[in-house]
Structures are given as structure tokens and as C-alpha cells.
Amino acid sequence: MNRYKKILLQFIIFIIVLSGSLFGYLEYPSFFSLFENKLNDVMFLARGEQPVDKNIVIIDIDERSLRKLGQWPWSRDKVATILQNLTKDGAGIIGLDIVFAESDSSSPKFVLKKLGIKNIKAVDYDALLAKSIANSPTIVGYVFAMENDGVKQGAAPKNPAIFIERNKPKKSFLIEPYRAILNIPSIQKAAYSNGYFNTIPDRDGVVRSVPMIMQYNGMLYPSLSLEMIRVALGEGRVYVNYSHEGVESIQIGALKIPTDRFGRMLLNYRGAQHRYKYISAYDIYSNKIDPNEINGKVVLIGTSAAGLLDLRSTPFESVFPGVEVHATAIDNLLNGEFLQTPSWILGADIVDIALSLVIAFSLLLIPSAIASFSLLVLLLFAILFLHYYLMIDKGILLNTLFPLLGVSILFVFGESINYFFEARLKERIKKKFATKVSPAVVEELIARGDENSFDVKEKEITILFSDIRDFTSISERLGSAKALIALLNEYMTPMVDIITKYNGTVDKFIGDAIMAYWNAPLEIKNHPDRALESAIEQILTLQKLNRKFTQENKPNINIGIGINSGVSVVGEMGSYGRSDYTCIGDAVNLASRSEGLCKPYGSRIILTEFTKKLLIKEEYFIRELDRVRVKGKHKPVTIYECMGYKDNSWVVFSEKEHSIYTEALALYRDSKFESALLLFKKLHALQEQKLYKLYIERCEHYIRYRPENFDGVFTFITK
After folding, report:
1. 3 state SS of 678
2. Closest Cα to residue 202, out of 340, 323, 313, 324?
3. Is 201 in contact with 34 (CB distance < 8 Å)?
4. I need a surface site. Which of 11, 417, 566, 699 has the fewest CB within 10 A?
5. Is residue 257 pLDDT above 90, yes or no?
6. How far is CA 577 from the centre of its chain?
7. pLDDT at position 68, please?
8. Residue 273 pLDDT greater than 80, yes or no
9. What are the TM regions of this chain, as residue ranges (predicted)?
């Protein structure tokens, strides 16, 4: 019964996701277009670079040309010379990705006119350029101002082509600019034709299409690339084919150009910049090139110089010369390598979305979560591969976002339902083991799927004990149990957070003490380092907490931390009615004893030799304290004090002091108590420390009562 309920719920989710996907696709295409475009960009990048048309040449106003011929704008006689040389070398057609919107202020005629001199005949650079344009196969460029910029609309661009609109709907879908920024009249008049070179980026700033036509004051005007192709083909008419959804295609002779509904042609980029033949404008000006590089070619004049700001963002690069965008458009037009969304794409997308979700739904019925997820990954890759193949090989753009998004959402919610029903099954397992193990361990047992995972066993772990110093005086000062508990909670919370942050397991709270351990139940490779890092951070955090307590007139808290590593017994222990996952053994007892030694030695963190030798990192500030026999142990152990990190210690300990301390400790262990006493007193004079005072008292005691067979080990008879 539960299985059928699960399938029914998953089917309802399937219907909701399918409906939501189709609704989003049909009703909010513009909102999701940004994400769809990014997916298409990824497929472009995966495809890599493609061959380019060798008949397209870019004359580049590059940095070298600017150094040789001066900063832009150049005097028009130089541009005229470039056009003359291109015409002489047999250029098939020339497109100017430049607009000459103002007269040449460097022209002699312009200068004399400014000076009011009328009787001297002077060269007119604008006229020279106009003549060169008239005598060359040049299509001049201009630009549309897309928004109202406060400037009055001027003359309309020249438009020799005849536009014929087929099945035009009442609603206009074409882009309508505000005004045209044209070349000066003499240049505009000399040109046979012109075309705008606007590139309109998508919302994310990436240019993925070029508007082939725009509508200005009720008339249609072609882009620079479209007009160059029209003139090159010798066609006088341009057909614009509509459907009720907008523009479908533009046709020039036998060339049919698929567009989107707004008359934009999607650009099939050939790769990163400089894929086309670039020739420095200076080389054309100086007539230094082989005419065969120009003869019969489609020539574009533009710039790649960063300072001239004709740079665009494309799927391949964030900085891409604008002139190469037009070269890409011309390449697509010449070779018919279009990206398109045909009129039937709507139905294809709906079938694609629905079929993908049906397959994803069937995957939810597979019992194995691993198998189901593996097949889901295969399905996602299959969708990507199919869409990639259609885009790259056929130039057809299916919607990729909604199949991927819909499948992912369906699978997430469907598997959540699976998880819900599995959780109910796990609950029965919990009830079965409720009297044997703790709830926390049951969760881990279920995750691992092994009922024997938490059997009692021996394992090397690192154990940490911490305890509050002078707890009785703190409780007396606070006065009430409520205030004491509040203070303890404020202290315990960050300490526990730090332990878990460093992958520790909080075993228990023993009054004001905390017991934690590392490397059980989960394996922690560098568990001694993690334990010590946790201890250091606890001390540093407590320093900040005490500053807060001082401001709030609360007693400060000081703690001692003991750390030891060793083999202990870990596992589920306790009575039949109540048990817990914990650890016991000599290593645990030694960790507890080490914490108790913090008070007599005046230390905040004490670790044993067994932990120290397992440390991997070397940035800790550690010094040897003593060799001791703790209560209940006969074998001596060396204990060490950690005072933070070498570059962040809470104890100032100079090299000189360290050297004296090392020597004093060696003398003490060698039974040279008089010499050791002098050095420990010297150390105490440098810096009063409880450790130095302890050794002073011991030396004085041993001088008075000379011990026999002294081995340098101090035996503690209390905990």
C-alpha cells in the first residue's frame, strides 16, 4: 500500500513540474532567456573554434596604425588613401564600421574657413574622402541612437533597397530606434548605400545576435552586413517574411536568412577574436601588402584598439572587436551557417520537455537510489548531447534550460518522497535498536547500513578533558543557580561548537567539565592535530568571552585542558535499558589526569608525549613541562604545555628565556638542584610564572632533603 501511495505522490509532482515547466516556457520566455543563453554559450565553448571564410578581410585601425599615423580621428585624406589603395588592389566590397558624423577639423579648407580667409583655395579632406567613397565599392556605416537622447531627429539614412514585407501582422515586432547618427552630407551623398552597425547586447551584456533590419519612421533599414551582402549579390529587393509571431526570415535572392521574431540573426561565432584575416590599416595606407590579399575580398574597416572603445562581449570572450562581430555576421550570410529557431520549434520544445520528464518519472520507480541517480545523470547528459548536436551540426536551437531544470526539480522532489517513505522504514529500525544503542548512534548505523558497525572495539583516539578553575568561587559570586546556569550555557555553547567544528565528538558534560574525543566513530586521519587546534581555539575564544563578561560585571572563567592519545575501547556501552556510544581505558584516564595537572603547573593546555609524537603540524608553541607519574599509573609520562601558535601565543616566551628554561630543566633532572634553583629564580625574575615557582619550591625541598636515586620524575598522589 505504501508503495502505491508513494507512486501516486510522485505522479502528482510529475504533473505539477510538467505544468510549471510548460507554463514558464510559454508565458515567461524573456525571464528565463538569460539562463538559456548561458547554456548555449557553454555549448559554443565546448564546440571550440570553427573554420572562417578566407574571403573576409578586416582592415584594422590597430595600435600600430595609431602610433604611425597619429591618434584617432585621422585626417580624412588618410582614410581616403586607404580606400584608394583598397580599390586599386581590387577589393570586392568595402564596409566602413566607422561614422564620420562631423567635418574634418584638420582639413586646410576647414581651418581657413575658421580663420575667416575666403580667397585662398585649399584642400578639402572631406571632399577627398567623399570622392574616394564614390569611386570605390564602399558601403558606409552609420549608427542608430536607440533611446531619446534629447537631440532632434535629423535626416533619414540612404535606402536604395526595396523592402517587401510578406504577411505583415498589425503588431510591429521590429526594433525601432529614436534617431540616426549619419555621416556628414558630402560623404553620405557620395556613398551608393549605407548600413547601420549597431550591435544590441542581451541583458547580460553579451552580443549573441545582430538586428538585420530596423524600422525608423515607418521605413525599414538594413544592417551594414546585410547591405554589403545585398550589394555584393546585385539584388535590389529584400523580402521580409512574417508569421503571426513576428519576423520569420529575410530573403535576398536565393539567400534566406532565418531570424528571431524581432528580425535579429543569431550569430554563429567561429571562435575567439582574430580568427579572420587582419591587416594593419597602416600597411594599406603605405601600400605595403600583396594585392592578392585584397583582390576580390569582402573588406571591413574597423578597429581592435582598446582606446577606441569598439569592443564587445561574446560567448567566447568578454573583449571582442566590434568589427569582427560584423565579419561573423557576413561569414554566416555568405556560407549559410545559421543558428535558427524555426516556426516548428515551439512544438518540438514542448515534446522535448514532456518526454524528458516522462523518462525522469520512470527513473523514480527504480528501487535503487544509486541506480536511479546514475540513470538520471545519463539522461541529463543525453539531453545535453542531443541539444548540442542539433545546435552545432544542424544550427537548430532547442530550449535546453527547461528539460534540464524540469528533470532536476522532478527528481529532487521525487527522491524526497522516496526519502520520506524510507525514513518511515528506518523508524522501525530505530525502534528495534532503541534499547541497545543511543539515538545518535542509530542514525549513524542507518546511514552506514551495517548493524555491527558500533560493536565495542579497540581503537586509537585522542581524548580531551576541560574543566573550569575555581568553579565554587564563581558560583558563590553569582549567588543564584539560575545565573550560574546561564553563565555555564554561555560558556559551554561556543566550546562545544569549536569541538564539533574540528570534527570532535562531545561525549558528555561532567558538571562544569567537558569530555570529547576524536577518531571515533568516524575516522579522522590527523585527530591529534584537530584536538589540539580545537583546544587552542577554545582558549582564544574564552579570552574574548571573558572581555564580554568583564563588561557585563560577570566573573571571568578560566579553564584547564588535558589531551592524550592512545588505544581505547570505543563502542556502545551501558546497561540493557540505557546505553551510549563512549570510550573507556587508560588513555581516557590519562587525559583526565592531564587536565588535572593544569592547575599545579599554571597551564591552560597540557598534552602528553603520546599526543605530541603524533602531531603532524609544526606551528604550535609547545614546551616540555615535566616527567610525572599520575595517580593510578606506575609508568612515567612526559607532559607538555601548549601556549597557542608560534605566531599567536598567549604567553610571551623569548628565545633567551627558552634557552635558560631548557638548561634549568636539564640541571634539575641531573639532580643539580643548586644550579637549577639559580636559573629558575632568574626565570621567575624575568617573568612570574607558576611553573617557575613550582620548580623553585621543588629545588629548595630537594636541597634540604636530598632524594636518593632521583630519576627526574615527579609522582602525584592525588588526582
Report:
1. helix
2. 313
3. no
4. 11
5. yes
6. 51
7. 94
8. yes
9. 7-26, 344-366, 373-390, 396-421
